[in-house]
Structures are given as structure tokens and as C-alpha cells.
TrEMBL record:
One of its GO terms (biological process) is positive regulation of DNA-templated transcription. GO terms for cellular component: nucleus. Keywords: Coiled coil, DNA-binding, Homeobox, Nucleus, Transcription, Transcription regulation. This is Homeobox-leucine zipper protein. It comes from Olea europaea subsp. europaea. PROSITE patterns: HOMEOBOX_1, HOMEOBOX_2.
């Protein structure tokens, strides 16, 4: 029985044998029957051992490729999550800015309506002479009498 095991037992490959197998594998990762027999004779090992080595080597390549793909996808995900966090911060900042502008506008509108109440006339609001019916942002433009540019200022130049 021991003689049977020693005959079917695979030998470990030497560094020279491994180098020859690697060289052949790099040339073509598929093994045809003729080449398998030729390599087995050259290496002094059974053809099945050569075929098994090729099969294991292809599996190792596939695993390494999957690991690389996984790392690439992981980096892409990290970049996307980082970009998403930055965008969320920007949205929060812009919402805060919008709230402040809306508060200013509300304050402006309430102070404007209370000052027109003090005068006792709503004609000021609808008076085209005072241009109070213009859009609220017009009040932020420098006052030049009728919301126009001052002398020397050309807004559309």
C-alpha cells in the first residue's frame, strides 16, 4: 500500500520547474493536451499535475483580479460618499443662507408695512412715483432717485 501512495503522490515542484510553468502560463493560460504532455515530460511530473497547476494558477489570477476590482470599487464608493457629504454640507449652507435672506426680506416687508401704516396711507405702496411696487430686490440697488444708476454707473456696460 505504501508503494501505491508513493507512486500517486505528487512531487513538489522545484523553483526551476515553477519558473518554466510560469513562463509557459504567461505565454498562454490555456493548456492543450499536446502541450500538457510536453511540459510533463520536460518537468518529469505526471500530466495531471501540470493540468492541476494550470487550473490553480488561473483560479489565483481570477481571485487577484476580483480583489483589485473590489478595491477599485471601494475607492470609488469612498470618493462618492465624500463628495456626497460635501454636497450635503453645501446644501445645508445654502439653506441657511436662504433662511437668512428670507428673514431679512420678512423684516424689510414688515418694517415697510408698519412704516406705511404710521403714515396712514396705503397709497405709498401702490404709488408708481415712489416705485414701491417694484420687486423687493430692487431696494438693494443703490438709490439714485428712481432705482437707476447714479451718474457714471452703467449697470449694463
Amino acid at each position: 500500500m505504501d508503494s501505491f501512495r508513493s507512486q500517486t503522490r505528487k512531487k513538489r515542484l522545484t523553483p526551476n520547474q515553477l519558473m518554466l510553468l510560469e513562463t509557459n502560463f504567461n505565454f498562454d493560460s490555456k493548456l492543450d493536451p499536446g502541450r500538457k504532455s510536453q511540459l510533463a515530460l520536460q518537468l518529469g511530473v505526471p500530466p495531471r499535475q501540470v493540468a492541476t497547476w494550470y487550473q490553480n494558477r488561473r483560479a489565483r489570477d481570477k481571485n487577484q483580479s476580483l480583489e483589485i476590482d473590489h478595491k477599485i470599487l471601494q475607492l470609488r464608493l469612498e470618493n462618492i460618499l465624500s463628495h456626497n457629504a460635501k454636497l450635503q454640507e453645501e446644501v445645508a449652507r445654502l439653506k441657511d443662507k436662504l433662511n437668512k435672506v428670507q428673514e431679512m426680506l420678512q423684516t424689510f416687508n414688515s418694517s415697510f408695512s408698519s412704516s406705511s401704516d404710521e403714515v396712514g396711507s396705503t397709497n405709498l405702496i401702490h404709488s408708481s412715483k415712489n416705485h414701491l411696487d417694484m420687486e423687493p430686490y430692487a431696494s438693494f440697488i443703490r438709490d439714485a432717485g428712481q432705482f437707476g444708476p447714479t451718474e457714471g454707473d452703467d449697470l449694463f456696460a
